[in-house]
Amino acid sequence: MRVRPATLDDAEAIERIRVETWRATYRGLLPDGLIDGLRENPDGRRERLRAQPADQFSFVAEDAGQVVAFAVGGRERSGDPAHRGEVYAIYVLPAHQGKGLGRALIRQSAHELATRGLDSLLIWVLRENTIGRRFYERLGGRAIREKPLEEFPGAADHIEIAYGWSDTSPLR
Ligand SMILES: CC(C)(COP(=O)(O)OP(=O)(O)OC[C@H]1O[C@@H](n2cnc3c(N)ncnc32)[C@H](O)[C@@H]1OP(=O)(O)O)[C@@H](O)C(=O)NCCC(=O)NCCS
């Protein structure tokens, strides 16, 4: 297993991981229309990687030389003074879950944030995503706030929970 910064050449793999994992995770939890409407967007991803702000990062994780997971993060987006870094997204392909890749990506993200002076962390997860919630609880995160899922019109009756680490040193 290897974690490394994403390059422009990883755009296709990242998009495949995002869509396949999102569908597998949220089918039955979110409306079918949202699940079926999701599309890979490698050009958009490549552009986002190319224009990635200096205070953000994208990591990929390889398993047997294949890119099978990724994480994206940066500064916390709402101005929470107690949680200054954020992991915006983390996805591990279903066939590669439970092998430590998620933990390794969180560790690398926490390390990267700390090098920028951000040693606290927040991550949002859908309330119904029990696997994701157990993962964050296992890593020592505490549920600290809730909000309606704003990303998708038509899913605003779903709730997201923020998990927080006021000090990421145990994660690193
Ligand atoms: C949540 C996710 C990132 C975890 O990544 P992973 O590589 O499967 O997790 P790891 O193998 O690193 O596991 C780390 C810890 O989490 C716990 N964990 C992981 N998957 C679990 C599961 N299905 N049920 C219970 N606990 C689980 C394990 O106990 C493990 O601790 P341990 O090593 O001490 O036993 C991955 O399952 C995923 O991408 N899920 C779909 C997308 C998603 O939900 N993203 C997060 C919310 S935005």
Distinctive features:
single chain; 172 residues; alpha+beta; Aminopeptidase; 7-stranded mixed beta sheet; binds coenzyme A
Describe the structure.
- Helices cover 32% and strands 28% of the residues.
- By secondary structure, it is of the alpha+beta class.
- It has a single domain (2-165), classed as Aminopeptidase, CATH 3.40.630.30.
- A 7-stranded mixed sheet has the order 1-2-3-4-5-7-6.
- Helix 4 (101-115) links the parallel strand 4 (85-92) and strand 5 (121-126).
- The radius of gyration is 15 Å and the shape is globular.
- The model has no long low-confidence stretch (mean pLDDT 96).
- Bound molecules: coenzyme A.
- Coenzyme A is lined by residues 21, 25, 90-92, 97-103, 125, 129, 131-132, 134-135, 138.
Could you give a short description of this structure?
By secondary structure, the chain is an alpha+beta fold. The chain is about 30% helix and about 30% strand.
